[in-house]
Amino acid sequence: MKPTLSIIVPCYNVQNYVATALQSIVQNTQPENQNRVEIIIVNDGSTDQTAAAINAQLSGCPIASHVITQENAGLSAARNTGMAQAQGNYWLFLDSDDFYQNQAIDKILAVIDAHQPDIIEFDATIFYGENDWAAQTLYHSYFADIANPTQPENSKIQRTFQENRWYVWSRCYHKELFQNQTFERGKLYEDFMTIPYLYPQAQSIFRLPESLLAYRQNHSSITANISHRHIADIFYGLQKAIAAETTQPQYRELWQILQLKTWRLIVAYSVKRFLRTRKTAYLANVQRFRAQLRQQNQRNWGWQFGYFGSVLAKRLFRLR
């Protein structure tokens, strides 16, 4: 029987975490639903004992599972590989150091059965380790239930773009949304380069107001290691958002919000790195987008950043 739901799990050097991730899929799926789910594991060239941990966990697994091994190509490429093999009409993406909770899979299947939405949104809880949970829930959707986000004036989808939380793992997707969309290979911030572009295609969105996933956050990684590559890849994302405003003008309001949010991220990171890293290359990137930035500034830069933020941005990007 063809599965309803494919869960794509990219793995790279996660020997200490992948067993918990895979266990959580089984633990959050009732026996009567297990034949409706498939697990697609993409081992992205791991050099530790990840492969052994996967094989041990899948021994006797009651859910159909497929392991794909490839040379290391990065998270986006691993997700794309999993998507190419997925048989379900709906897809979930689970990072291999996170795990599901609160009967996540059963609840998602119930929503699919009742409503067949294009996107199902749910929350996640941050944790730093087994006994270190943050009192923070990630991703608060503005869709109370089934909604139609195809009209740009819809205040809820605009607020979703304003919130700018494009975590791939906090949603379930109908596979048709990815018909002409893949994850950007070799780029950081691949989620925000992909997920916003699915929303204009969606005919319906369902909100599950529960934390169904535990998201592992490393204390040392929170904006601590901003490099030139981070900023360069965000510039790449900006270029994509600017292009979308031209190719899909009916959603101009959404793309403009995405552009502003992208610029805000660039400014925040640039404060940390502008004077400490590859200044010449950085300014070359700025030069490429100066005209668009000036237009954004004239339109609503002050609204987005406030007075002091606007002054900082003008000086940082030499807009005067």
From TrEMBL:
InterPro entries linked: Glyco_trans_2-like, Nucleotide-diphossugar_trans
Gene assigned in the entry: epsJ_2
One function term, GO molecular function aspect: hexosyltransferase activity
Domain Glycosyltransferase 2-like: 6-137
Domain of life: Bacteria
One Pfam assignment: Glycos_transf_2
Its EC number(s): 2.4.-.-
Protein's name according to its UniProt entry: Putative glycosyltransferase EpsJ
Keywords: Glycosyltransferase, Transferase
